[in-house]
Design brief:
- The protein is α/β, with parallel strands linked by helices and 87 residues long.
- The protein is 33% helix and 18% strand.
- The chain has three helices and five strands.
- The strands form two sheets. The protein has a three-stranded parallel beta sheet, covered by helices on one side. It has a two-stranded antiparallel sheet with strand order 2-3.
- Strand 4, helix 3 and strand 5 form a beta-alpha-beta unit.
- Helix 2 runs parallel beside helix 3.
- It is elongated.
- The chain starts with a strand and ends with a strand.
């Protein structure tokens, strides 16, 4: 019924209490085209809800020079799989 859609991995934030950058490395965003393709596949396999996950989802795209690109990604996902719930 639901499936996770990982949009990026790692983190660039220098939080002193967090070990994610040491474990996962620097932020690496997955290209939007790949995410749309994966979302369509998950929906075709029966996933009704797509849960968007990342260590720092608000930083999506910053590693490739795109600032504030999370809304654009969510819009593109909503258009590609209009009958799926995005969380």
């Amino acid at each position: 019924v639901s499936a996770y859609l990982k949009i990026s991995d790692g983190c660039n934030a220098p939080c002193t209490f967090c070990i994610i950058p040491q474990i996962k490395g620097r932020l690496t965003s997955i290209p939007a085209a790949d995410l749309i393709q994966q979302a369509m596949l998950l929906r075709s396999e029966g996933a009704r809800e797509l849960v968007v996950v990342a260590q720092d989802s608000t930083a999506y795209g910053e590693d490739v020079g795109a600032r504030d690109s999370l809304p654009d990604l969510l819009r593109a996902l909503a258009e590609a799989v209009p009958d799926a719930w995005l969380r």
